[in-house]
Each structure stands twice: as structure tokens, then as C-alpha cells.
Amino acid sequence: MNSSFLIRIRFVLVSLSLFAVVIVFRLYIIQIARGETYIKTADAQYVKSSRPVFDRGSIYFESKAGTRVSVATVKNGYTLIMNPKLLTNPENVYIALSQYIEIPKDVFMQKAQKKNDQYEELAKKIDGSVGESINALKIPGIYVYKNNVRFYPGGPLASQTIGIVGYDEENNQRGRYGLERYYQDVLDRTSNNKNVNFFAELFAGKERGVFQSSQERGDIVTSIDPTVENYLEKTLLDTQKLWKSDFIGGIIMDPKTGQIYAMTSLPSFDPNDLSSVKDPRIFSNNLVENVYEMGSIIKPLTILAGIDSGKITRKTTYNDEGFLNLNGKKINNFDLRGRGVVSMQEVLNQSLNTGAATVALKLGNEEFKRYFTSFGLAEKTGIDQPNEQKGLVKNLNSTRDIEIATASYGQGIAMTPIATVRALSILANDGRLIRPHLIKEIDYLNGSVEKIKPDIGIQVVQKESTDEVTRMLVEVVDSYIAKAHPGIRMEHYSIAAKTGTAQIADPARGGYYDDRYVHSFFGYFPAYNPRFIVFLYHYYPKGAKYSSETLANPFIDLAKFLINYYEIPPDR
């Protein structure tokens, strides 16, 4: 090989080496030494936040046919930005923008005067078409950049259950309330390594993983059926309007698995537009976050405890004088009347406070407490909603007869609606205490799918005991409630149900209001092989004293709807 050829090779290698050194040096200057300067220049050029475009997992409802409906997703949107230094005629700019978007003129002009500021936000969550139209104007100093937003296609449908997304202390968007908060780790798409600079980390000697696990991130599929949820909300809205109650709520659940088909509390809100919300308490889910004295719907649990313990049977009688004197206090039946010698069936038929109290006294304080505790009334249910509260049941610890007597008919102890419906579902699932849940599936980003297995529950009473109480509650419907509401008795379907009316505590004067009540109603059907348990309640309805007046017809409507919608075969 001649010397000239070797010289040329060496020249090429030296040139390539020098070129590589220059490139690396320039990259060092650009990204390290003068990185901040170039970042500022780029930001000024695009007038855009360095934050990544918002992204988040979806939440779905699922119909009986298996069709998924998105109820929380991400929608393309834009943010409108002004650079006051580049505005030449703010008045003309304002007129041009007003064609597409409403901005208070005084606000716009105030921001336009900030000549030392290069970044002023004028509007967020602008629709894509509006953002593109503004961008097409090519006004110096006016920019739009993509900034996706959380969007709820169903509007106010199940809004407290779904929740909302809001900013945390570090200005990151996170789930607030409902499923958005409970499943934050699954729905979150925020990168743990934002704005990674490879060369900066290379020169700094930092190490990083190439892949990030997406195992915990995905979309969630709920058991809520949008058709059932919509029907429940319409029924409750009509009921609330009729009786002008302060608030109202309902739960439709499979009593055997705890799977929830519908769950709502009214009044609600539209998560797409929070500007009209004046009281942030509306974001909370009353069904899991607040407790109430539930009244006579608790009586079937007292009868269940009595039968399961062997202290009473369905035919056990007692002499009802209409009142009992206990520990220097007097408790009465709702109408202050006595019935003479009556059976336990009549205790449920006529909702006799003295009868429930008699059963509790037969059990004794300790055994009564043991049963009611086993029904889960003193604990959280574990439902996948944030801020769930425990029941206020300290009266169960009392050694005085008066406390267990009042607890036996649902006064003096307070539970969340979800804990109440869970306890009542024991009657409908052969004596097992299950866990209510809203999620049936999680679809992870890595392609794996987690199916939520139905909860078989814990056996807390004998099946024979629940069967007997179910027969008693069917009799309540067929022979008693049906007298005033004939439509509740269905010829080919058995329904087990009970009403409840509880006085509301007066925090100012102590004791209870004489004219304010919590009305409740629950039922399950078909009674001997239930597909659904329905729980309804509302707080301080006006113009009616008893829940049979306000909630019987809504319950009937819901029961008939569910039977037809799910094509449930007759059972009698």
C-alpha cells in the first residue's frame, strides 16, 4: 500500500474524529452550557408550557349486552395564550378574538398592558375547531397550544360516583372524588421522567431505566349499566321534585356478588362545567361518606338475629301495649297504639317498634351487639370509593336496655347507605356478608386484563334463618304494603321489601325534630333467588310522614323496569 493512500486514510479518520468532537461539543454547549437560554428562546417562540400534553385512562360503563360506554375520557382542547410584548393594537386583537371566544374586555386589556410579561393565559379548554380558527388568524402575540382536557360524555350521570380531576399542590392533574380518585394510580398517565435530556444525563453521569412498567396503568370498566343508571336517576329526580326532599339517593346491586348496577345521589353536578357549583360538598358521595339513622328497614335484621339465635320464631307472640318503659324512658309505636297479642310477622307487617325492641331484649345486650356487628354495621364495606365512613354505632356497646331497644328499630345508630344495603343483602344471599364493588375489569396498558372476581362473602347467619325472614318480608309486601300500593304485588314475581321512617336528630336542642324524617325503602327480587336488591332513601321530604307514601311507587317502577330490562323469568 503506497504512502499517499495511507495519508488519505489518516486524513479522513482525523477529519471524522474532529467532526465528532465538534458535534459533541456543540451538543454540550446547546444542551448543557446554554441549555437554559435555548429553552427560554424556544418557549418564547412557541409561547407554550413545557408540561406534557394531558393524558389519562378512561372509565367505562357496561350495558347488559357487554357494550362499553365511555363516561370519562380525554378530549382534544387548546389553551389560548398572549405575549403582551408582541401586541401592536390590543383593541383590534380583542375584536378579532371576540368572533370566536368570549373574554371579558377589562381582563383582556389588563393582561395586554403587562409588557414585561411574555406569557399570559386568556382561556383554557377551548374546542379544537375554535382553537384552529384562532390560530389561522396568525395574530402576532396570540398563540394556541394543544392542552387536552378531561371530558365526561354522560355529563351529570353518576357524577359523584365517577368523580372529577383537579390540580394538586404541585399543579399536576389528579383524581378528586369518586372513581377518579380511588383508581388514581391506574388512570394516571403522568411520566415519572419528564423532559428527559439524554446528553444532560450522560454528562451528569446519571443512570435511568430504558423501560417504565405500565403494569399499574390502564382503563377501568365498571359494573354500572348506563341504562339502569339513567332510569334510577330519572326516577329519583321525579321523586325529589314531588316531595321536595333536601337530597335523595339510591343503589341497585346484585346481593349475591356485591356488583353495583346503579348508584346515585341527587342533587348532582356536571363535571364538564364546575363554574356553577357553589358548594363543594356536592362533589361528595353521600351514599358512602355520610351516615343516617335508617329507621324501620333495620327491623328485618333484628328479626333475623332473633330467629337465627333460636330466641324467636315467625309465630312467636308478645303482648303489644304500644309502649315500653326502659331505663326511665318511654318508647312507642309510630302511632302510639297497642295491638294486643301479636306475632313476629305482625311486627314486620305493621312495623311495630315495641316488637323489635322485645326481640332485642330477648337476645340481650351482648348477643344483640354480636349479631349487629357481624352484619358489618360498625365497619367500612370496602367499596371502591374514597372517604368511606364507618357507622356510628357506639350505642351497641351500652349496657342499658334503652340503647339496644332503639337500635333494634333503626334509631340511635347511624350507617352509610352502602353499609345499610350491604347488611340487608344478607337476607337475600343465604346469610353471607359480601363486599360491594363498582369495578369489574381493569385493562392494563401492557395488554393484560384483570377480572374482578365476585365476592362469595362470609357466612354470618344460617341460610334457614334468612329464608324464614324472606318469607316474612314477602308477606309484608303481599298482604300489607299492597293494601295502599296494589302495584307492588306482582302476580308472577315474589318481592321481599320493607319501609323505613326515622326521625332526624336536632343538633341544636337535642333529641329529634317532630316533623323531619329520613325515608328509606329496600327490597329484593325474585325473593327466593334474588337478582337485585334496591335501596332508596331521601332526607327530609316535605308533605309526607311515612316512607310508604313517598318511596313505594318509585320502588315499584324500578322493580318492574329491572324485571323487563333483564328479562327475568317469573318465580311464582
Largest β-sheet summary: 6 strands, mixed
Rg calc: 32 Å
Q: CATH homologous superfamily of the domain at 230-268 and 287-440 and 470-565 - what is it? A: DD-peptidase/beta-lactamase superfamily
Helices, by number, come to: 19
CATH topology of the domain at 230-268 and 287-440 and 470-565: Beta-lactamase
Strand order of the largest sheet: 6-2-1-9-17-18
Poorly predicted runs: 39-50, 193-214
The shape, in one word, is elongated
Name the CATH architecture of the domain at 230-268 and 287-440 and 470-565.
3-Layer(aba) Sandwich
What share of residues is helical?
25-40%
Average pLDDT for all residues: 88
CATH class of the domain at 230-268 and 287-440 and 470-565: Alpha Beta
Structural class assignment: alpha+beta
The beta-strand count equals 22
Instruction: Give the distance, in angstroms, between the N- and C-terminal Cα atoms.
Output: 105 Å
Measured by DSSP, the beta-strand proportion falls in 15-25%
